[in-house]
């Protein structure tokens, strides 16, 4: 693969026809698209090639449908791109209920390709997609031989879109701001409270671009004020937490988290029962950032939330808060029907750091696939309990690896054994190295 800037195409195999058409048409206007069927050679490891394709991309186009969101592989690609702060351009193929969107797409503007087989409609939406891409990156993504090293890092990652939408919006995405700004206000309105009030007003009443600009301004203003905000600014934000517009509530929670306003936690707790899943999820994560282990009590009930993304946020936050009292609520999730929940629960239990969970993690390690094993080993390494040495030793023959990392199960097991510092661990490591040295080179 030529080392140049490109957009990764994430799609289900059943949507290959649209995928190929988009790839061809975007390349014709100078936008390079990475599509597995065109980039991966028959001899390549398909899983590794896909992972590297996401890792090295500048942005992603995701062809979204209800079926896409049920595909573990597609969702992993989307989650990986989001984790790496890649800009995602969602292409909507089939209608999806608002509450069905994953967190990675909650605040993105969709370009509607549901009628793509009608050529005039396809061309309209293609034009909007091209405008959105070039609005974000200008001529950065193109078929010219630009290398990652030759482009400043700041230009490679654009800001996430701050505008949540309930319906697909076709307008091109607004260009990201290069520097943090505060909204311009008349001289007679120069107080912090008035500035925030003006921004929140625009969030409620402005058009699409005004709301995006206001959202960025609010977040950037919080970055400027971080750890130096006044009581007045916090008071105005706390009032806005009760706004009837869920978008406002969401952005205010994020702003409070950026400000590091620990005093706002009591006002965030009621939002854990908010009707909108994204608000609940954002409130959970904000409490995780601002709170202490004592705040785990208010997060634990969210482990049974009807929305899996809210549950995921609750599990991860309990790991961050590290209260051993929540172990009893997390242990049953080790047998959850959703594989991702099991992985997050293992990780959380390792972070809490209580050795009472060692036996449960060893059982998961022995029965799990490469993903479960990999995460279990990391958790057991954190706990550093010698009871895990025998089970870790058995993992030294497992050369599989999870989709998100090239490091094999045996590699992480070797690292974990090295931290145990027991005679059995040292013996296992020595045997492994001896075996490796005897293998043909």
What does this structure look like?
With 441 residues, this protein is mainly alpha-helical. The protein contains 22 helices and five strands. It has helices spanning 16-28, 36-39, 46-55, 66-70, 72-83, 119-137, 153-156, 192-205, 208-225, 231-240, 246-259, 265-268, 277-290, 296-299, 308-321, 327-330, 339-352, 358-367, 370-383, 389-394, 409-420, 423-438, and strands at residues 7-10, 33-34, 59-64, 87-92, 111-112. Strands 2-1-3-4-5 form a five-stranded parallel beta sheet, with helices on both faces. It is globular, with a radius of gyration of 24 Å.
Topology diagram in text:
Blueprint: E1 7-10, H1 16-28, E2 33-34, H2 36-39, H3 46-55, E3 59-64, H4 66-70, H5 72-83, E4 87-92, E5 111-112, H6 119-137, H7 153-156, H8 192-205, H9 208-225, H10 231-240, H11 246-259, H12 265-268, H13 277-290, H14 296-299, H15 308-321, H16 327-330, H17 339-352, H18 358-367, H19 370-383, H20 389-394, H21 409-420, H22 423-438
Parallel strand pairs: 1-2, 1-3, 3-4, 4-5
Helix pairs in contact: 8-9, 8-10, 9-11, 10-11, 11-13, 13-15, 15-17, 17-19, 18-19, 19-21, 21-22
- Contiguous low-pLDDT stretches (5 residues minimum) are 142-190
Strand arrangement, major sheet: 2-1-3-4-5
The protein's oligomeric status is single chain
Structural class: mainly alpha
The major β-sheet equals: 5 strands, parallel
The helix content is: 40-55%
Specify the number of helices: 22
Which series of helices and strands comes N to C?
EHEHHEHHEEHHHHHHHHHHHHHHHHH
Shape from CA axes?
globular
Mean pLDDT: 78
Task: Write down how many β-strands occur, each being a DSSP E stretch of 2 or more residues.
Answer: 5
* Radius of gyration over all CA atoms, rounded: 24 Å
- First-residue to last-residue Cα separation: 27 Å
How much β-strand is present in the residues? under 5%
């Amino acid at each position: 693969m030529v080392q140049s800037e490109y957009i990764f195409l994430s799609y289900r195999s059943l949507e290959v026809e649209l995928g190929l058409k988009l790839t061809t048409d975007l390349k014709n206007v100078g936008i390079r698209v990475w599509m597995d069927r065109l980039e991966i050679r028959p001899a390549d490891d398909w899983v590794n090639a896909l992972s590297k394709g996401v890792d090295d991309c500048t942005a992603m186009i995701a062809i979204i449908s209800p079926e896409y969101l049920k595909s573990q592989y597609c969702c992993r690609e989307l989650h990986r791109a989001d984790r790496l702060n890649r800009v995602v351009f969602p292409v909507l193929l089939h209608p999806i209920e608002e509450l069905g969107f994953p967190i990675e797409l909650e605040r993105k503007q969709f370009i509607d390709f549901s009628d793509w087989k009608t050529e005039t409609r396809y061309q309209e939406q293609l034009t909007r997609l091209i405008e959105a891409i070039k609005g974000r990156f200008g001529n950065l993504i193109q078929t010219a031989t630009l290398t990652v090293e030759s482009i400043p890092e700041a230009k490679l990652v654009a800001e996430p879109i701050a505008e949540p939408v309930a319906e697909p919006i076709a307008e091109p995405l607004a260009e990201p701001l290069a520097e943090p700004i505060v909204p311009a206000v008349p001289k007679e309105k120069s107080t912090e409270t008035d500035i925030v009030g003006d921004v929140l007003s625009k969030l409620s009443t402005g058009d699409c671009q005004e709301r995006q600009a206001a959202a960025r301004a609010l977040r950037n203003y919080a970055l400027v004020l971080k750890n130096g905000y006044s009581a007045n600014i916090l008071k105005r934000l706390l009032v806005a937490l009760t706004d009837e517009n869920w978008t406002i509530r969401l952005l205010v929670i994020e702003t409070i988290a950026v400000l590091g306003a620990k005093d706002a936690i009591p006002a965030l707790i009621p939002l854990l029962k908010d009707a909108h899943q994204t608000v609940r999820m954002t409130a959970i994560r904000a409490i995780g950032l601002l709170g202490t282990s004592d705040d785990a009590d208010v997060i634990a009930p969210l482990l049974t939330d009807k929305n899996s993304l809210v549950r995921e946020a609750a599990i991860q936050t309990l790991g961050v808060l590290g209260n051993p009292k929540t172990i009893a609520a997390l242990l049953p999730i080790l047998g959850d029907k959703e594989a991702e929940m099991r992985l997050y629960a293992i990780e959380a239990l390792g972070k809490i750091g209580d050795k009472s969970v060692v036996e449960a993690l060893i059982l998961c390690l022995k029965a799990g696939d490469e993903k479960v094993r990999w995460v279990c080993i990391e958790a057991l390494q954190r706990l550093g309990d010698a009871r895990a040495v025998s089970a870790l030793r058995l993992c030294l023959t497992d050369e599989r690896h999870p989709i998100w990392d090239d490091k094999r199960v045996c590699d992480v097991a070797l690292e974990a054994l090295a931290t145990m510092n027991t005679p059995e661990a040292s013996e296992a490591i020595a045997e492994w190295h001896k075996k490796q040295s005897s293998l043909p080179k």
